[in-house]
């Protein structure tokens, strides 16, 4: 393990922090940067190398993982005045685990290619808990020959590393999954709410859906109705889980991709608007299954 | 088996015909009525008793099953000038397997109760194939004490007979399931189409969805994209299966129930409109998974 | 004026009360019934005849106006155990000013025709203020030869009496107008909100819309943005005007009519759901232009 | 007139061509560039100066108008390898009449400002006919002190030049207007179609809407139903007018702006999807009022 070369890590937020720690556990020395110096302190105390800019990370490491909140942040970290591209070495492997617009991933990839390095998009599925336990799923887009090299690192942080195709397809897979998830979650909430108002017992209705063609992950694994399942956010006042504001962000990316590729997303765009409205009505920090609660409120006269 | 008393059967269409035959196979003598005399001929030839009106069925049988296309037909068969209620005997068991508005089921039940008989709604899930093989699912609403008596008959025609609660809850369960099914089918079609346009291989995308939170019956059992699965309508030019026009009808019932109970169905109402439009664009007789084809058409300039 | 024969009036609520008074002002003696006796007291004190049932109204008057909240109420008042049809005289003119499902209007008309009387649907546009000042608009459906007779009475209560065609078309005209109104109000609210967030001054944006192709009644006469116009509900915290709950009801009727005629209403059904949601979020009693406020709320983090 | 200094014009397409000609008519010498050399020929023959790049235009003219199809084209023309910014002189006035994302307008403005020139966005309303007759409406965003200078040129091409506020607000005003236009056009089409199916005469229904609260530009000036009005696209098989594909593009811009500002556009996003679908169903080149025809198609069984 002593022979492992350093890995750069940029973006040590809620997700990046436990991901970087899992790399440490697997014996990789780290070169760290975050726009908030406080986020680096813990790693500095643990003996990892903290530097002053993405460019400096690229100067000291030829494998770099980025975990950033938005497309804009990713562009800045790669192409900004002190960005990775200023000092990246030929042959470096740059893996972006941010969830961003696949069109941006493709643009970054082109710029990276120009300087003789390799870019892969590898967004994750699974929240903070999975990041801590090293059980994330990575959806990876990029040149297939480099997948093994990427997987060596990603497998330290995730239990499932899936190759999806050319650059941008990792993002595409994540966006498509989350759009379908949002649609079926809202659909489950609507069906459960309608059924309850028509006199059905919620547990019985869930059971019927789950043995029928309405069955979906939102109905059988993450049911949004309090009292139907244990150990899910609906059983805990919609705390924890995957926040409404994050779902709204991913649906915004799906919308952008659909608009630019002229793909109709009749329900996807509506789901986007619903999660947008929920963010304005006090649901931003609740789990996205709280759409049941949002629909459930009774009319008052 | 000789001792079995006759069972009335009203409505011998695509579904009613094989259902009635399964009762015959289990040794029940039938008393038959259909508004189209031709539909009865086959049963007459087989020695079953054919009568001239629903009232006459009620005169000769104290257990009656009805299988009719619309709420209006059900009202006519029960409450019309020659309807069941004109001659029904006290203590009779009337089982309606039509898919209709649960509010209508409740009204019929009240009228039936007035004459001292028992009404249960028992709509089915599963198409003509399941009707032939006796593998339908029945969702049953009505007084719980009578469920055993109903199940005796229904079990001859279905492999799954589920008690749902008070009168109307059978319809409610079916409507809620089919609304969620429509939503997740459209969602699957949108996600698959968007992913393909973003460069993903359809089979790979389906595999990713099915091991992730986007998983649903429409993605893992009945995938709407040609080439992804065998033995489903999408593999056979969307022939067979569950017609778009039938899905549009069920969504209309969901909409009616939602409007009358003031339940919001943000995506459900949109799904209704989408299947409505498809009926006008030549998709009525295709399987409802053809929504993928409907969305897939490319813009032309 | 002494020679005028009595007019029956059933339903003396918020709207019916001032409408009936306008008939009195024009010298028509009234025969009154309301399910709530208190609603009749004022008229009794004024010397009008109060009776015990709709049947009794029909016994004493051969022209009757009904103003009721729902389709169910109209059916009860016409066809119930003590309904108008029990004692209506041949040749009577029955005018229903309720806003109900046009299909119900047609059914009532058939029953009325059977007993040799005439039915017309004549829903109103304009609120309580217009009812008081006699400035309602009536949209009238029924046999054209009877329109003059109906207009004689309706013109006492409204400044605009429009003949729309066969029975049910009065309702149809009202429902279509209100559906378009709801859609363009929500559209105006969305456009104004988006423009404001993009940096436009609300008054300037309204001015631009109103001289361009976005112009509509909701933008130029009833603008939903506080500060843009005087004398409209948005200038008065959305008090007065046309309540959200009433708009939701009318959109429910539009939805029912669209479902039964298989007419696609892609935006109309969405508008229905939006007003439905608003009713559950505390907007029921506010004017329907408060959809701007509903959309305006900012996301909180 | 001899003393007028040359004006640059980039983008001589369907709209740019007649706009540039109107500048010529007002005596402005032109410096012309288009990516398609054929588009310049007509102007060369008329004695105007044709150059090889946007940079060359900037070299020879200190007032430049750009009229380009997409945000990408605008970025290329301004910031590309041979873009305006390469040779623009201090104090130049750069007016972009393209309809593009207001966020892009703001970015371009920043870059232009860096080199000491002035940028204004001035998208147009009105089609090819208005461009020919000099009757366009310009919605102008930028520094107010420069508005008079811009208006001098724009008034040669349009009869209505409106100052909207800071850079980007011209685009914002146009996008908001067109989004509301799309929504009310679809709403009008739905209301007219529903009314017709409920038995109303289309002309009568249009008349009722136009004297009521459903009134809008789409109902009273540009009615989408054939036979209701003369001289509009619906009277001419939806030829001419404003193409569906252009409306879809503008709605895509509205969607992008709404997503990035987190503004809910519940109906706007649906309108976007509807025009998107229409483009895929053969309506791209028809006027956008053909949504009536799109909805009108009857269900077939």
Write up what this structure looks like.
The structure is a homotetramer of 301-residue chains. Chain A is of the alpha/beta class and 301 residues long. Chain A folds into 2 domains: 7-166, NAD(P)-binding Rossmann-like Domain (Rossmann fold, 3-Layer(aba) Sandwich); 172-296, Orthogonal Bundle (N-(1-d-carboxylethyl)-l-norvaline Dehydrogenase, domain 2). The first copy, chain A, contains 13 helices and 9 strands. Chain A has helices at 16-25, 38-45, 54-60, 71-79, 102-114, 128-133, 147-154, 169-197, 202-210, 217-220, 244-260, 266-280, 291-296; strands spanning 7-10, 30-33, 49-50, 63-66, 93-96, 118-121, 124-125, 136-141, 158-165. Chain A has a 6-stranded parallel sheet, with helices on both faces. In chain A, helix 7 (147-154) links the parallel strand 8 and strand 9 (158-165). Chain A is elongated and about 65 Å long. The model of chain A has no long low-confidence stretch (mean pLDDT 95). At the A-B interface, strand 9, helix 8, helix 9, helix 10 and helix 11 of A face strand 9, helix 8, helix 9, helix 10 and helix 11 of B. Chains A, B, C, D: It is found in: Mitochondrion. Chains A, B, C, D: Its main location: mitochondrion. Chains A, B, C, D: Keywords: Branched-chain amino acid catabolism, Mitochondrion, NAD, Oxidoreductase, Transit peptide. Chains A, B, C, D: It catalyses: 3-hydroxy-2-methylpropanoate + NAD(+) = 2-methyl-3-oxopropanoate + NADH + H(+).
Q: Can you give keywords for this protein?
A:
homotetramer; 301 residues; alpha/beta; Rossmann fold; N-(1-d-carboxylethyl)-l-norvaline Dehydrogenase, domain 2; 2 domains; 6-stranded parallel beta sheet; 3-stranded mixed beta sheet; 13 helices; 47% helix; elongated
